[in-house]
Specification:
Layout (H helix, E strand, L loop, with lengths): L2 H34 L2 E2 L7 E2 L3 H8 L1 H33 L4 H13 L2 H11 L6 H10 L13 H26 L3 H9 L4 H12 L1 H16 L3 H6 L11 H11 L3 H29 L5
Helix pairs in contact: 1-13, 2-13, 3-7, 3-10, 3-12, 4-7, 7-10, 10-13, 12-13
């Protein structure tokens, strides 16, 4: 057998598991969602083609509007603060001893079950006997709020949980980016008399911009996909104050059995995420710098 052909065959053999998984769990469901978005189907009977009626219903549905507003607000709360804290943590750990140990501690929430994290934080944020309110009472003598039942505090509370859980993942990415910056730049700047502050703003941040772009894109996508914390901690309440887009999709599909309407809302969410991703990629030309 031709060696090149043999190498090609073995190459396809090795990528086959990943390719099959991509087709089965990503591409085929994506195509199915687009097809279902044009159908009226309850998951059991015959499906009827109704064109764009599901999309019209989605944009007129008050629940869809509420879910989109909450999701956008949640994204604004989590993305900037999450990136800032992750970068701050990565910079702090970059030059300390036992960096691997600290990195492990910060990364543990990332690999911990979302349900387990949500249950623990439900106890911490309980307005009556939660440890956070107990500490506020003992330390400052103030009565803590009802974190998960207050209409104005429930989304910020979920944002705190999301930031805490995701900070380790972004921190690892930033650490990899920091360690990839050549020390020659810092040595040259020290010869020119640059301070640590000037090195950070003129060297570290610009050369870390590719990592920052990647982290930002991933953080925005994750913020739009929030579901597990809202599902476990608040069930979308109170009064749908934590009702997110993915929770809306879940209710339409698995509570109301309106798979066509749920798929249409999912397609809209997909388009919105795609828009923000392309927008960030386009704007990155102005602020992302790659080292020569």
């Amino acid at each position: 057998m031709n060696p090149k052909r043999s190498n090609a065959i073995w190459g396809f053999v090795f990528i086959a598991p990943q390719l099959i998984g991509l087709l089965a769990f990503s591409l085929i469901p994506l195509i199915a969602a687009f097809v279902l978005s044009t159908l009226d189907w309850d998951g059991f009977g015959a499906a009827a083609f109704i064109g764009i009626d599901n999309f019209t219903y989605a944009f007129k549905n008050p629940d869809f509007q509420k879910a989109m507003t909450n999701t956008l607000y949640f994204s604004v709360l989590t993305v900037p603060m999450g990136i800032f804290l992750s970068l701050l943590t990565a910079v702090a750990l970059n030059n300390v001893r036992m960096r691997v140990v600290y990195r492990l501690f910060f990364f543990m929430p990332v690999v911990t079950s979302s349900v387990a994290v949500a249950i623990v934080w439900m106890w911490l944020l309980n307005g009556d006997f939660g440890i956070i309110n107990v500490l506020l009472k003992l330390t400052f003598g103030i009565q803590g709020p009802q974190w998960l039942t207050d209409l104005h505090l429930v989304l910020p509370s979920l944002a705190i949980v999301s930031i805490w859980k995701g900070i380790g993942f972004n921190m690892v990415l930033f650490l990899a980016g920091l360690q990839g910056i050549s020390k020659d730049y810092y040595e040259a700047s020290m010869i020119d008399g640059a301070t640590k502050n000037q090195q950070f703003w003129r060297i570290t941040l610009p050369l870390l911009s590719p990592t920052t772009l990647f982290v930002t894109i991933i953080a925005v996508i994750d913020s739009f996909k929030v579901f597990d914390t809202a599902f476990v901690m608040t069930s979308g309440g109170p009064a749908k104050a934590s009702y997110t887009m993915v929770y809306h999709l879940y209710e339409l599909a698995f509570k109301n059995f309106q798979f066509g309407k749920s798929s249409a809302a999912a397609v809209v969410l997909f388009v919105i995420i795609l828009f923000f991703t392309l927008l960030q990629t386009h704007l990155s030309r102005k602020w992302v710098h790659y080292a020569d």
